């Protein structure tokens, strides 16, 4: 008898809970449809689909490796799901985690650029020809069902997004439904590009971090083209110029390195590291007077590099 | 096996720390190496050195944890090496909590009804047959 009694109470509570749930959801449902900016509506073509993105159906929990295989293949990497599973899948978690998704792209000599988490940006990338690997929570926050898929297109006339997802080669769903599932991962997603190219619409900060992470894995010799693309897009970014300078230096082009360090210091006169590197480079080139001038500037700027600049001034130039 | 692993990881940690010490202990002024883009992003030279040691410990932890989670021994080293410092930090701090994209799998029946309703409302995308 007792279990039956407990069961009924359980059901009743559940029904009430479900009722509350539905009520709350109905109230919030209207608010969740993404509003596109007017400029996006005017700028983008009404329809867009990158149909040459290959499709790999996921097996079991392996949507991470499958989604990665699609975007990597699209960028000319010869790989498949079987190769990627041991590189990115975590058996104990029955899934793949975001940092490793990004890191695995770099292992295949491509750069993963996180996108800005907005619907306008997502559609912009698709219109620009870059498929976006997105993370979704298909279920509710309380019972998460994390999922990776590849967005490949959209239709502004009937408000649908087109994905390669799970076992469905061409999964179409409404903007509002997709955005509800995407918002639960804080709208996480990234595009993949070859070193030396920078996809349209990537922010300066995201570009810098992505190129720098690639540099950690492959060295500054491998990032010169990417820094060039980055500084071409964002010529006034001091850190971009600084990254470019270090890549020139690693590629045995000290003259260009020096002028890029000077460009960094000009964009941001308070960037002590830029003055310090100008000084160190001038020292290497046996130009002590120019070195002293730059190092003095570095030594005068409060912050991380002040102490080192003072030491170099004393030890190398005997101030 | 576990003992061997514990011993090995201690040894590995020790080895990593020892090999990293010269880097950390080297007085900055003795070198005329240029400041790397990564240290500028990390934004503090001394802090970057401290973080380096911390990172090496972190990476050993991550490696251990991934092996525990069933990742192949042959693969785990390359996987951890592929992480940037920032990603390694994220992994070390929250490997347990990081969402792992897994895909569409069966939900508990108790949850079935709720998700069915939310699917129909267009808030979730669990059951393709709702459309």
UniProtKB/TrEMBL annotation, chain A:
Keyword Magnesium: no
Domain Peptidase C39-like intervals: 52-162
Pfam family, one: TPR_16
TPR repeats (start-end): 238-271
Annotated signal peptide: 1-33
Keyword check for Plastid: no
SUPFAM superfamilies: TPR-like (SSF48452)
Top-level taxonomic group: Bacteria
UniProt keyword list: Signal, TPR repeat
Name assigned to this protein: TPR repeat-containing protein
TrEMBL record, chain B:
Pfam families, sorted: DUF6627 (PF20332)
Record's protein name: PA2779 family protein
Signal peptide (UniProt feature, chain positions): 1-25
Superkingdom, natural source: Bacteria
UniProt keyword list: Membrane, Signal, Transmembrane, Transmembrane helix
Positions of transmembrane segments: 100-123
């Amino acid at each position: 008898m007792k279990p039956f009694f407990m069961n009924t109470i359980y059901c009743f509570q559940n029904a009430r809970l479900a009722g509350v749930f539905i009520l709350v959801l109905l109230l919030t449902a209207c608010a969740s449809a993404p509003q596109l900016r007017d400029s996006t509506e005017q700028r983008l073509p009404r329809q867009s689909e990158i149909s040459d993105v290959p499709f790999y159906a996921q097996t079991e929990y392996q949507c991470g490796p499958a989604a990665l295989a699609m975007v990597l293949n699209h960028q000319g990497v010869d790989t498949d799901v079987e190769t990627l599973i041991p590189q990115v899948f975590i058996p104990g978690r029955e899934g793949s985690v975001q940092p490793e998704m990004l890191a695995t792209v770099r292992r295949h000599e491509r750069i993963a650029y996180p996108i800005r988490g907005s619907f306008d940006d997502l559609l912009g990338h698709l219109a620009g020809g870059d498929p976006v690997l997105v993370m979704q929570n298909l279920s509710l926050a309380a019972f998460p069902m994390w999922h990776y898929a590849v967005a490949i297109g959209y239709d502004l006339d009937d408000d649908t997004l087109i994905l390669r997802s799970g076992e469905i080669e061409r999964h179409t769903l409404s903007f509002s439904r997709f955005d509800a599932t995407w918002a639960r991962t804080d709208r996480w997603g990234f595009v993949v590009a070859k070193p030396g190219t920078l996809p349209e619409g990537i922010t300066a900060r995201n570009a810098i971090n992505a190129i720098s992470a690639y540099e950690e894995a492959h060295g500054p010799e491998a990032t010169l083209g990417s820094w060039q693309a980055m500084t071409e897009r964002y010529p006034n970014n001091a850190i971009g110029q600084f990254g470019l300078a270090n890549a020139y230096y690693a590629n045995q082009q000290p003259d260009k390195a020096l002028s890029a360090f000077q460009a960094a210091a000009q964009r941001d006169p308070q960037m002590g590291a830029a003055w310090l590197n100008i000084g160190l480079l001038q020292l290497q080139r046996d130009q002590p007077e120019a070195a002293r001038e730059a190092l003095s500037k570095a030594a005068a700027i409060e912050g991380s590099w002040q102490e080192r600049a003072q030491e170099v001034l004393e030890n190398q130039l005997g101030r | 096996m576990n003992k061997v692993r514990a011993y090995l990881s201690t040894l590995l940690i020790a080895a990593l720390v020892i090999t990293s010490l010269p880097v950390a202990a080297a007085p900055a002024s003795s070198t005329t190496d240029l400041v790397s883009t990564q240290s500028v992003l990390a934004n503090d030279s001394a802090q970057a050195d401290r973080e380096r040691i911390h990172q090496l410990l972190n990476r050993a932890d991550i490696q251990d944890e991934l092996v525990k989670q069933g990742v192949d021994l042959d693969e785990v080293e390359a996987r951890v090496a592929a992480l940037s410092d920032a990603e390694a930090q994220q992994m070390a701090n929250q490997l347990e909590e990081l969402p792992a994209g897994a895909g569409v799998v069966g939900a508990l029946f108790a949850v079935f009804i709720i998700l069915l309703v939310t699917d129909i409302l267009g808030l979730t995308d669990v059951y393709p047959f709702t459309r």
